[in-house]
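Data availability (excerpt). The following record was deposited with the supplementary files.
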Amino acid sequence: MGIFSSLKKNLSHGGVKLKLDAPASISMAKGEVLVTVEITATDSAAKVNGVLVELTKERPAGTNPDGSQNSGIPRQSMSKAEDTKVFELKPGESKTVEMKLLINLGNAVADMVDNPAAKQIAKGLGMLEELADHASKMNDDYYIIATVRVEGLKLQPSTQQRVQLVKPGEFGAAKNITL
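Predicted structure:
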């Protein structure tokens, strides 16, 4: 493989196309959210070494609700899920990977335990997490990002979807629009 074909492979994601499917709006009261990533090998075979899905937030620079100025915050990871199963795709073949992304640890634990006392403690932790996030009046931008580790590529293919994170006491409904 020549230098130009190697460069083209890295810039075109090695012939891998990604499609991310996540809810357009997510409640902070929800424990987990299901995210699917469809990976398609386009013109050549691809060996996938893992899939990472991440919920991030960033704050654009601007004016705060109280009138003060903020310089913004860079993108921060809030939650991650990783599937490390290795698989190969033939040209034109697709595989869908489903992953659960943790949104509220307390509420997620409450959904998993059977003990009534442990369930109440977990729900209390979930409410504290919701209250702490609700106390922040900042207008943060939230994204779900999917990254696929493809063998032989230095630049890993990724895609992102902006999501609305609905805090306690807020109403919101966003729609995914496919172009």
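Summary of structural features: Confidence is low (pLDDT under 50) at residues 7-13, 174-179.
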